[in-house]
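Lab notebook, bench 4. The sequencing result for the construct came back, and we need a structural model before the next group meeting so we can plan mutations. Quick request posted to the team channel:

Model the 3D structure of this chain.
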Amino acid sequence: MKKKIALVMAGVMMVASLAGCSSSSSSSATTESSSATTESAATEAPADALQLIIASNQTSLDNPYSFGMDEFKAVVEDISGGAIQVTVHKGTLGENESELIEKLEMGAAHMVVSSPGFMTSVGVPEIDIFSLNYLFDSFDHWESAVDGDFGDGMVDMILDQTSNSFRVMGYWSSSVRDYYGKKVITSPADLAGMTVRTQDSVVQQEFWSGCGAIPTSVAWGELYQALQQGVVDSAENDYTNFMQKDHHKTDNGKYVCETHHDFTTRLLLMNGNFYDSLTAEQQAWIDEACVAATAEQRAVVYRMFEESKEQVIADGAIVTEFADMDIDAFKEIAIPIQDEFAATYGMEDELAAIRAAA
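Done. Here's the predicted structure in token form:
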């Protein structure tokens, strides 16, 4: 973890000291999550405590988002002495990110976790730089970019181009994404004619089309059934997310091939106008809690990558390791898409900086 996160984390723990998980079904997770969020804070809340609602679209209590949100709740309630109270929703406000964004805009949620792609439809096409495949080579490379000048610049761009509607409070990860489908692939040629469920991103779909596949849109909550019934031949996601939804247990999901094409970025978002309406003290508490939550969420992502892979193999999935993939062939398709994107949106300098940080 980068030094600045570690330093702030140390500060959080000092202030806190002075002031004072396997996958389950959606219905079970919803019940447990609802119960957990109604527990009283360690410090009795003042009558005028600021009430915050934070949500993700993942129902599993063992998902890294869950750990990050729980950390935010624990830290902000502690350092504020109960002046801020948090209710956490884990898939209970909606399993589709579009639902969460609507809740954020309506004020029915104050902070949500979302992939960046939705912003392409609200006037920030540059955000799709995060969706470019093979942009990052490792988790360390990703952290260097998002925690540096590039990440800071994207925060300012998003605030400006959304008229302060979306404020990035932290860069979270959804690990690294791989192919999983009904057959083994080792190169783009193996994907010819196959349907693959992809993210709703133009550059993602362009990449898979370039591999010869047929990009297909399926809601996350419906993907297990789509794989089980053969509606799609394959999909792509990280070990933890597809393991917790049992996608690898379907006939069309049991062959996992480590393409490692997307070290993902997820945004912890707050409405900028709401944030600006808070007192300086409230903002400081929230900022510190977001740093702590981001550090925790990332740590869980990195730990669960290995644990989830082991579970997928134990469940009978067949894994083709990264070293056995023709990654150069995939990159030959990805790099021109990166260059074209940067030229279209005037982001050549940003792309060069990301590549230099590898």
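The CA atoms of residues 279 and 285 lie 10 Å apart.
Will bring this to the meeting.
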